[in-house]
Amino acid sequence: MTKTKQPKNKPYRSAFSNALWSFREIGKDAPMFFLLMVLEVPLNVALAYADIYLPSLVVADVTGRAPLEQAALRAGALILAMLVCHILRNFCYHLSEGYMSKYRHKKGMSVDRKSLNMFYQDYERKEIRDLSQRASKATEMWDGVQPISDVPRRSLKLVENILCYLLFGSVISLVNPLLVPILTIAPAVNWFCARAYRDWEYSHREQWTDVDQKMWYLLDKTSDFAAAKDIRIYGMAGWFRQVFRALSGQRLYWEKKMILRRFLSRIADLLVILLRDGAAYLLLIRMTLEGSITVDRFVLYFSAISMFASFIGNIMNEWNGIRATSLELSDYRRYLDLPEQEGTGEAHVEPLLNTAPEITFDHVSFRYQGAEADTLHDISFTIKPGEKIALVGLNGAGKTTLVKLLCGLYLPTEGDVKISGISFRSFYRKDYYRLFSAVFQDLQAGFFTLEETVSGQIRGNADTGRAEQCLRQAGLGEKLDALPQGIHTHLDKQLYADATELSGGELQKLMLARALYKNAPVLVLDEPTAALDPIAENRIYLRYQDMARDKTALFISHRLASTQFCDRILYLKDGRVAQEGTHQELMASGGEYAELYELQSCWYKPGYTPPETA
Fold first, then answer.
1. Residue 279 has pLDDT above 90, yes or no
2. Is 322 exposed, middle or buried (0-12, 13-18, 19+ CB in 10 A)?
């Protein structure tokens, strides 16, 4: 992956860039929300001025001894106008929330979509998954703040407060022109303090992100029903509590640091307010006592100065808020902007879907990021169309890495993987995946029905008859017949009371059925019988030739008894093909494969006792 070079503590995008991006996205995805937010700005400005003008108007009428009817009419008209503005503002706000919820949901979906479609090799990296978590957090509501929507809201609030600043500043300048710059300069101290805190928080965010991720992982595991038996049998509850306490202590350490720094910035803000407002109010009192201004003007100016100070603070707060939420929005945009390995699309996959293709590894090497040495070294071999290959070797030999390269989940560091002579890079990645039906070691099933799991389709869109046939072919016929709802039975008892729980062997058969349903021209089985007993394993192997008929197949196993069903065997050692040939040829050669096979075959002989316990 071509990495976007970015200094560690520098935001991916500026606050101004994020604000423009937010308005552009809202204008595209939720134009009514944008219009309603904009309408709130003049309404709020009008209400702010009316709030200080109404008391002054009443005092002027009282001190000027205006007729009661005239005073009531003027005050009533202003109150009615304020009421209409309030109603319109609340209407715009509540209506905009409905549009905004859709926008928030759509942006949250974009993070999920990115995670689901991201190139596997990239998503496997911890730093990418951490970034994914922060991007997802930017779409969620935390303490009343959601960065994906708060940046545009705060931006318009900033505009609103700037307009109020100009309006109220013009009123205050009538008292003394120097008041405006004095009241404006003072809050700069607070702004710099708040900015320093936000910069510190952003530069250290990875520290508590890592701790939070571990805590959520731990909480997820303690509530995982699948782990309940192990937790009880092995007395792991105390260990979980101990680990959680340790993580909580680390999180509390950073919380204390944040609270202390936030408290210091607020103390500075309080001192500024006392100096700023105290001086302004003393000036007004002196001018009133000297008769320079009337009582109603005093009320107007007093209210204006009080509000003016709040607008200055609001401008600073909104700007700091924009910067703070913008930092989180930067993580969101950075995650979505991560480059993809899509392939060129020069080749089309359709002509290869109905025939067993040839597979060629052409001097392929692979090294994991940060590793000092290659996991695979200059691998070259060809699997003929329709050939069944067994890939064997000890743990760490590179078997699963090779399979991930074949399936397009990894990119070779050097060399090329070709399908019927065409480089895998010539296909679009999603099209390339259509060539493979795979069953990997780490089995995953959701809360779907058996039919939905096998077909990958929501109920009603799948071929039910074909899904059932695949389940029976994979060895789940008896299980299917014993379920009252048959193929429509759900899998997760935590969500469905009438669901079923599959054993490890049954789950492995379910994954085999899913691979059969896809019916891709290349069948990849990574330890397909690891969770099966020897009898069930033998039954699966007897069906193996039928399952892989008219397909090119690559079969990984630690149990070498399975290799007799394959046309050829590749024995991997230290990331290289150490031996190659049929089972009979490799047994006759007397190499490491033969030694390993003889060692394992003893376990299948009646009356055998391991040497360690003999």
1. no
2. buried
